Amino acid sequence: MLTAVISGFIFALLIPFILGRLKSTSSLWVALLPLSLFGYFLSRLSLIKQGGPIKMSYEWVPSIGINLDFNLDGLSLLFVLLISGVGTLVFVYTAAYLKGHPYLNRFYAYLSLFMASMLGLVLSDNIYTLFLFWELTSISSFFLIGFNNESDASRKSALTALGVTGFGGLFLLAAMVGLGHITKAYQISEMISMSEYIKNDSLYGWVLLFLFLAAFTKSAQFPFHFWLPGAMKAPTPVSTYLHSATMVKAGVYLLARFTPILGNHEWWNGPLIIIGGITMVYAAIHSLFRIDLKGILAYSTISALGILVFLIGLGTHEALLAASVFILVHALYKATLFLVTGIIDHETGTRDVSQLSGLRKVLMPVGIAALLAALSNAGIPPTFGFVGKDLIYGATLGMGDLAWLFTFLAILTNVALLVAGFFAGIKPFIGKLPERYAAVHLPAPAMYLPPLILGILGMLYGLFPGMLEGGLIQPAVASLIGTRPDFHLQLWHGFNLILLLSGVTIGSGALLYLLLKPSEKLLKKATRFERISPQALITGITGVFSRLAKGWTRFFQNGYLRYYLITILGFLSLLLAYRLFVGVELYIDTESMTQVTFYEAVVLLIMGVAIFFTVFSNSRLVAVASLGVVGYSFCLVFLFYSAPDLAMTQFSIDTLTVILFVLVLYNLPKYLKLSDNRVRIRDGLLSLIFGALISILAIEVMNESISKETSAYYAENAYVLGKGKNVVNVILVDFRGFDTMVEITVLAIAAIGVFGLLKLHLRSTEKE
Predict the structure, then answer these.
(1) Does residue 561 have a pLDDT over 60?
(2) Which are the contacts of 246, defined by CB distance < 8 A and separation ≥ 6?
(3) Among 333-347, 412-426, 515-529, which stretch is predicted with the lowest mean pLDDT?
(4) 23: Cβ–Cβ under 8 A, 6 or more apart, which residues?
(5) Neighbour-count burial of 467, counting CB atoms closer than 10 A to its CB (0-12 exposed, 13-18 middle, 19+ buried)
(6) What integer pLDDT is reported at residue 765 of this predicted model?
(7) What is the spatial distance between Cα 642 and Cα 651, in angstroms, rounded to a whole number?
(8) For a Cys-Cys bond, which of 61, 138, 323, 635 suits 647, CB 3.0-4.6 Å?
């Protein structure tokens, strides 16, 4: 499994170079990678059915418990087959859709990166590698959504998607840290046996909140749904792969994966039912008002994701079965409709459903694929969508007192989705063909065969649902409920209430489709409330944060070094003052202090006078000379205390510093007073306060008990290990050689900067 995941990343690195050298060759061969992965995982179908999960573990950072743990069970198998299977068709479709595009190699690299990230996400059994792959899906989707980077709208949509999903990623990390803290385990499969223990922990509510935020942002649940319609600025292969079959279902996968661990609790079920129910109804109704084919499909996708979250929230065996089937149902018909939309846009140059009609006469195979997908979307027999819809109604009808409310919401959602599906899959192909589309021709087979295959599969699985029952759906449901479920997928269950509800849904949806005509007028009715939409509200909040950030930056990062120093010294002064006030008892042991000699007093007096001239002199040269006097005074202090090597070092440094300052100051203009008395008083007080605090801190350090272990180590090993008799030099050159090298590097960089400033000649100066 590690090889399967890593192969996608390696392919993403190599494909730009390979395609760059094979510009005249068809890029269809690129689809061999996802096709091989699909074949590999398909071969594991019988093993999963007979023997249960397949686990593999590879050491990565074992010291902190982070390993590349992979778990291939029924749920992950369902997703990897979708990722690799739909991925194969998208890779083939892209070869024709973006044929001749100058950045086709880059696009394939992004697709491969995303595919590998999704595979790693659904196969991960370690909570931290799960988070890693989760973030990689956000990053790779950012590249794909913003692929048309010359477009402002594409860049904005990519940033919005990254911002929302990245925001959720932070909460996923918090949830995983919380789970790790509770269980002291990192493997998801190990946590299943700790379910009750986790639910009784005080952090359980916080873990749920953070996990929900992560799932809701990634799977576009209300009120975080707005990024998905914006992401339709991406090329159609991206919309097909990311926004119908794979990435947007990552949040659903996350909820499904943790259902055995965190589910079956009122704190889990209630929020998922509420958010999922609001999302599926809200988005389904919104899809009726759109005229852009991608907009219709975007909102219907959000609604379908809401259905999945709603079903996971119901949490019964029937609901989880319905969710497992609907994941596949939705991927088949929605990927088909997206691919069809891409063909329509590619051939006609428009996605406005109010302007499209009669395309069956020029795009018959495409129209057949669209019809099959629309029928499955509507849940009309004998499609696979009919099987999925019946399971949804069966799940809602089994919810006791709230059964009729939940069933009504499901019917309302499915009616709206039927109309949206007919708008996208049937309306563009019926009626009279406009003259402007008479020249439209059928695209290359690489474009219309993928949607045709998906549409036929939707019909085939409807006629023979047993093909999926034992090998794919049963293991998937078993991974959610912990036991092998007993059910049979059938197209016909006889005349019953569920069939009646399906008939009501189809009849109502068909009637509404005939009555409702997509138009700009209808769209304006839906968009007039944009000012109070979740997108507007969240955008307003982010605008406030943006203005605060700009104000904060202008205040602190204003380009003036003096303000940077004031901020740093002021903060350190407050910090030191607080620490000394609450935790330090000031004490000076006068008995242990030596008497101040006459020479020391004279040196201190000289230092004081030099400091006075440094601060109050109007001449830069006098100030520099005074600083040199302060440095030479320190040299004398070192000599008094028997440190001639330090004195010589100090003398050399001070002499060199004074010379350099004089050379630099020689080229500066005359001394100017750029501050008034208030500023100088402020700076003086801050300097006195900071200096006093440092002095107090130094005195307190002197009163601490001295541990001489480090000193003894260096003294004993300076000659033995460093071959030097001067301990200080050996420490600087050998024991702390890298520190010294870094310090020298910093000084060298500073010197280069000073040299550059000295040699700088502005153009305005040269003209003068």
Answers:
(1) yes
(2) 79, 82, 83, 86, 87, 114, 118
(3) 515-529
(4) none
(5) middle
(6) 45
(7) 15
(8) 635
The per-residue b/e assignment along 624-657, b for 16 or more CB within 10 angstroms, e otherwise, is bbbbbbbbbbbbbbbbeeeeeebbeebbeebeee
For 54, how many CA atoms within 13 A lie in the half-sphere containing its CB?
Answer: 16
pLDDT of residue 305 exceeding 60 = yes
Please give the backbone phi and psi of residue 723, each rounded to the nearest 5 degrees, phi first: 55, 40
Give the C-alpha separation, 679 to 110, whole Å.
56
What SS3 state is found at 356? coil
- Quote the tokens at residue 404: 């009729």
Task: With CA atoms as reference, report the closest residue to 211 among 193, 238, 191.
Answer: 191
β partners of residue 124: 70
What predicted TM-score, i.e. pTM, was given to this entire model? 0.79
**Token pair for 446:** 């690489």
Token readout for 573 is 């002064």
Q: 754 vs 73, 627, 669, CA distance in Å?
A: 64, 20, 16
In this structure, which long-range contacts are made by residues 101-106, counting pairs with CB atoms below 8 Å and at least 24 apart in sequence?
A: 103/147, 104/19, 104/27, 105/15, 105/16, 105/17, 105/18, 105/19, 105/20, 106/16, 106/147
User: Which residues fall within 8 angstroms of residue 754, CB to CB, at 6 or more apart?
Assistant: 660, 664
What does the alpha-carbon distance between residue 359 and residue 380 come to, in Å, rounded to a whole number? 23
Q: How far is CA 592 from CA 588, 595, 702, 703, in A?
A: 9, 10, 11, 10
Instruction: Compute the distance between CA of residue 397 and CA of residue 400 in angstroms, rounded to an integer.
Output: 7
Provide the sign of the torsion angle of the four alpha carbons 660, 662, 665, 671, taken in this order. Answer: positive
CA dist., res. 750 & res. 660, Å (int)? 12
| CA–CA dist 304, 377 (Å, integer) | 10
Cβ pair 470, 77 in contact under 8 A: no
Q: Identify whether the C-beta of residue 144 lies closer than 8 Å to the C-beta of residue 238.
A: yes
Query: What is the structure's pLDDT at 75?
Result: 93
CA distances in angstroms from 512 to 113, 503, 507, 509, 521, listed in the order given: 42, 14, 9, 5, 17
Radius of gyration of the chain (CA): 35
